[in-house]
């Protein structure tokens, strides 16, 4: 299999509607055995969270925006969902 050594959120741009637009930064690509593909790519690693957080349950900062913890929990939830799709 072809292995992208730096497959991260920065290297997988998506459009406003969530469609994959490209995979960039292929300078360290490698040919790996097929069993290697059984691992999650780094962009899917993270703490499991099976429920999407409710934005209204989080504090709002002085700037009127929801606190950073909400975004971290949302990220964990989305990565968990993507891991399930990947599997």
Structural commentary:
With 87 residues, this protein is mainly α. The chain folds into two domains: 1-39, no CATH class; 46-87, no CATH class. It is 22% helix and 5% strand. It is built from one helix and two strands, in the order E-E-H. It has one helix at residues 68-86; strands at residues 2-3, 30-31. Strands 1-2 form a two-stranded antiparallel sheet. The longest helix has 19 residues, at 68-86. It is elongated. The mean pLDDT is 89.
Task: List the topology elements.
Blueprint: E1 2-3, E2 30-31, H1 68-86
Antiparallel strand pairs: 1-2
Shape: elongated
Tally of helical runs: 1
Oligomer: single chain
Q: What proportion of the residues is helical, as a percent range? A: 10-25%
Number of domains: 2
Distance between the termini: 16 Å
Strand content: under 5%
* Overall number of strands: 2
Structural class: mainly alpha
Major sheet: order of its strands? Answer: 1-2
Pattern of helices and strands: EEH
The biggest sheet amounts to: 2 strands, antiparallel
Mean pLDDT over all positions: 89
Low-confidence stretches: none
Sum up the structure in keywords:
elongated; 2 strands; mainly alpha; 2 domains; 87 residues; 22% helix; single chain; two-stranded antiparallel sheet
